[in-house]
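Below is one such record:
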Amino acid sequence: MKILESLKQINEEKEKCTKCSLHENSKIRCHGYFYPSKQSVNTKIVFIARNPGNFKDQEIASEDVAPFGLQKDPNILKYSEVYFRKLITELHFTEFHITNIVKCDSKNNVPTKEQQYQCMHFLAKELNIIKPEQIYCLGREAANLFGLNFGQFVYNTMWNKKVFVGAVYHPAYIYRNPGMYEKWKKQVNEFQTHSFFKDS
C-alpha cells in the first residue's frame, strides 16, 4: 500500500533523527498506528497526542484488574493505551490513526517548544499522507497546534477540502480523573455530530 510505504519511509527518518536532545535517552520512536489494524489505512480520522511514553502505570502494575474494570493484557504494557481504546470504541470510532507531536519519549516531561518544533515536520508529513477529514487533538499541546482550547473546534481547509479539528482532554487525564468522563464523552459526541455534518 502506498500509504504504508510512505509512512515507513518517514519512520526510518525518525529513527535517525538527532535534531534535539530527546533522542539521547529515548529508546522508542512514535511511528503512529492504525486501529484496529493496518487494514484501516484508508481511515480519515486521526488522533494527535503529545508524545509517547508520557503516562506511567507502575502504581497499578501488581493489580489483577486495573481501574475501570480493565483486564490485564500481556500484549499491552500500558493501561492507558487499553483505556484509550476502550473510550474510543465506546464512542463508535471503528477505525482511526493515532500519532504524536513529539516522536521520542520525553520521560514524562513536557517537551519544550523547541523540541516540538524539531518534530513538527514529521507530523506534517504524516497528515499529508493520510489526509484526514477529522482531527482530534488529545491534550493541551496538540490543541495549541491549531490555536484551540479544550472544547473548541474549527474547520480548516487542507488538501483542498474542509477538515474538522477538535480539542479534547487526553484520555490519560480522564483515567486519573474519572469524574470527568461524562463531560469528555459528551464533548466528543458533540464533535462527532459537527464533523459528520461539516458540509451542511
The chain has one domain: 2-196. The helical segments are 2-16, 79-90, 113-130, 140-145, 171-176, 181-196. DSSP finds six helices and six strands in the chain.
